[in-house]
Amino acid sequence: MRLAFEQVSYSYAGAASRKKKAGKKEKRQADWGNAPGEVWALRNVSLTVEPGEFLGVAGHTGSGKSTLIQHMNGLVHPTEGRVTADGADLVDKDVAVSVRQRVGLVFQYPENQLFANTVYDDVAYGPRNMKLPEDEVDRRVREALLLVGLDADEIGERSPFDLSGGQQRRVAFAGVLAMEPEVLVLDEPVAGLDPLSRADFLALIASFHASGMTVVMVSHSMEDLAALADRILVLSEGRVFALGTPAEVFADAAALKAVGLAAPAPQTFASALREAGFPLPRALYDEATLAADIAAALGCGDGAASAPDGGGGRG
Amino acid sequence: MAVGDRAIIGQYWPEDSLVHAMDPRAKFLLSLVLMAAVFCAATPVALAVAALFIVGFYGAARIPLLQAVGALGPLIILVLVTALLNVLFVQGGQVYFEWGIICISEKGIQSAVFIGCRLFLLLLGMSLLTLTTTTLDITAAFERLLAPTARLGVPAHELGMILGIALRFLPQFMTELGVIYRAQVSRGARFDANPFKGGMRMLTALMVPLFASAFRHAETLSAAMEARCYHGGDGRTRLDPLRLTWRDGAGTAAVLVMLATVIAANFIPV
Lengths: 315, 270
Hints:
The complex is a heterodimer.
Chain A: E1 3-11, H1 18-21, E2 40-49, E3 54-59, H2 65-70, E4 80-85, E5 88-89, H3 93-102, E6 103-106, H4 119-129, H5 134-147, H6 152-155, H7 165-177, E7 183-187, H8 195-210, E8 214-218, H9 222-228, E9 231-236, E10 239-244, H10 246-251, H11 253-258, H12 265-275, H13 287-300
Parallel strand pairs in A: 3-8, 3-9, 6-7, 7-8
Antiparallel strand pairs in A: 1-2, 1-4, 4-5, 9-10
Helix pairs in contact in A: 4-5, 4-7, 5-7
Chain B: H1 18-21, H2 24-40, H3 44-61, H4 65-72, H5 75-89, E1 95-99, E2 102-105, H6 106-132, H7 135-146, H8 156-186, H9 199-227, H10 246-265
Antiparallel strand pairs in B: 1-2
Helix pairs in contact in B: 2-6, 2-7, 2-10, 3-6, 3-10, 5-6, 7-8, 8-9
């Protein structure tokens, strides 16, 4: 499914009055500054989430990331502009309801939304809301739990509140996966996890993407986004600051810093080395490739040999 | 929920004014007197006098009156319903409209307008307290005013603390309820669908996570309070001790003048 944002603006104040304006045919451009009382969370955001891609969303706190992703399944509607799923406008209630079955939204700290008596019932909540037959629900619950590394027979009858934090998050994750969404939207999926579960979760998300699922992931970790995302969207004060491949977005570290973000450490180090005269050909570096290229550059023994002292980047 | 420049009922409206600077204890008691004054108004003239005073108090508090009325929000409906009931149940004088058991008469309209205005003024008067006083100050005032009853075994400090914590966590729970609601809607819950069919299950999907979060907050909060050596009210001092100043004298005088004027206005023949 292709999710398209067309000139989307969202204002907290305007949400209530939106319905009144819905009848008007003319497209009203948002006038910034005309209404000082209004708080705009998104301003003229246009982008398309392509089927099968991994879109990373980055931005400083309050840049509109959470508001943006809540537009993706019609939880909130744009004050101006529109969001479409395969051409159908999400402002239509029936479209939004059907899109919610195809776009799985995992909120931040999803374990806080567990409510059922048993793990099984909690995971089955979504499929049952979709009015699926019980044997299909059973299949989906088992598969979803298996996907997140849990066994329905072993854990299904336990109360979700008795599980550890990491397991609770897996169960909450399974609750969304059981709806078998085409697009998985994740808000800070690894926030508050220990390093080991963090790596597990990121591998899990990467495997969903590898299996053909479209993934949209909001994250504060530029390293995670650089490693996983096909494209990265950087929001700043509700506007699209940058949208492109990790290499494109992280090329200008100074500009990112101006909007409160930092490029991944290896990338920052690489650009510092490059300024000091190191020949570093790749556009995007992680620790391993950077180490290999530095070794190669030093091995060549050209004029750059004295440069490492001048690097000054964050290792 | 209310983001931007909009007041909501019970919310604090930050401003630098005489009323804001008054002692919360004085404001607490004076708002009771203010209520009494509004109840004392038995004629339209007296009610108008009370309205003038309340408008004056809002002026002294530098709170835009329109904002304050808007902040009443849903409570306005309460006023309207009360007025409507008066129209229907108070009979007498000339009859304007009669249909079955519904009968609208002169007295009914008069009493509806009068009671409606009185209730409206009452709400405005009460919200002056919450608009100009932070919840922290209100609980402190509540606690201090209850303090004499502590000798009779009333746990004044504990009641104040409970009130304070409850007020503090209301907006928190509203926010969390919003997130839980949206999360369950994302999982296909339809709260706008038939509330009688599967309504209970919908409610559990909202209330269980909310209660779980309330218990989590309670545990964290009690641990945090114990870590800072909280041991109840004995010997506890305040960072900003409550002190009566000339403003409280002036405020008391103003409210007492209002009470006296309103009572006197009752005797002005219409």
